[in-house]
Please model this.
Amino acid sequence: MQADIGLIGLAVMGQNLVLNMADHGYTVAVFNRTISKVDDFLKGPASGKKILGVHDLKSLVSKLKRPRRVMLMVKAGEAVDEFISQLLPFLEEGDIITDGGNSHFLDSQRRYESLQSQGILFVGAGISGGEEGARHGPSIMPGGNVLAWPHLKSIFQSIAARSEDGAPCCDWVGGGGAGHYVKMVHNGIEYGDMQLICEAFDLLKRGAHFTYPELASTFSHWNQGALNSYLIEITADIFKKLDVDGVPLLEKILDVAQQKGTGKWTAIDAFDRGMPLTLIGEAVFARCLSSLKDARLDASRHYKDSSHAITINKKEFAEQIAQALYASKIISYAQGFMLMRTASEQNQWDLNFGSIALMWRGGCIIRSRFLGKIKEAYDKNPKLSFLLVDPFFIKEMTRVIPSWRTVLSQGVLMGIALPCFSTALSFFDGYRTGRLPANLLQAQRDYFGAHTYERVDKPRGQFFHTNWTGRGGDVSSTNYSI
Model:
């Protein structure tokens, strides 16, 4: 029996993807560096299914139909390069290697270029949805050598999640490292979404003294409306979970957040491209701040609570928080799509943003009803410059601004840190302002460093220098911008 695809790496994600493929009628050959995992998998979850276990890479490749399709589900970094190097002696021109791990897009770009020169088709496929998604339908974001897509399309779209209209949450993203780039931005937005929800939780619990049953009820209610999403749904469940002593389990969990780096990659890439991805950056910094647990405890002993007592209507305040959360979420996604547009133009990927929104509608961690509106916006105008200028989002943002400002004001008076709520509003206020104080900044730069400036009464691209003190000269610095 020959296999349709081979998969290397039988950790949680790998095993569940294999079972998903087998459920959809595909025969899968599997290999793992620790051979006992192959045998245990065949005796256990894979028993009775069309799954072939092998104990070496040569055997794996020999069992595959041509063109051979090999999928790597191993730890990002050196392990991917090692397996590619070990596979190459057994592959022929036109064979396909897919990396389904959480690789950095620059590594995928490098592998794509290197393997292309050797006649091997490389695909970097971002996969989101965790264990459950891998087993029952993830979001899959493939990019790389487009010649590989016709040979992978049926498999990937069969095992992918489905949106409400039945469309698979998987489509071709673009060339080079585009697949893993889109997955990276997805994860950055995920960081933002999670931090925003945490700030809403803090406002409700510490600011408005909501009980855990009230929190669960509020989030369940939110999940019926515009905030409907996987993260809101699971947060409501988390509030209901009790420890063995009957105390809400959340009370027992240490407030130190960990991270694997994809949010940081997104923020760094935004810096490199000069894009103001402020919300995701603050979400990363919020996790960094949480890690300073001992220092925070020490500081809390030195500063008395200076917050102001505020009289609020709990039901009304919860609704205002919902609207502030919705507005901030719009900003997060708008920034993410802004970054992807810039990367697409710079790398000539020609990303289809409506398709990306569709891929995120199901299976992935940030799946939500809200993404349907993003898809509609880009379907109406594929060249849309920025999400906030779409008519639907103009209407929505205008509607929620009063509540957004009220929540931020009250949160500040309560002494509650709101890094993502506040940076979202600051970005919005800056973006909608026709004239920012950057004119003063340019004057300062020219004053101390002769860095020049442009004038509002002259064409763009003409630069001027002023001898501000009368003691300087007329020579200016070379004009350049990172």
About this structure: Residues 102 and 260 are 10 Å apart (CA to CA). The first helix runs from residue 12 to 23. The chain has a mean pLDDT of 95. The beta strands are 5-8, 28-31, 51-53, 69-72, 96-99, 121-128, 139-144.
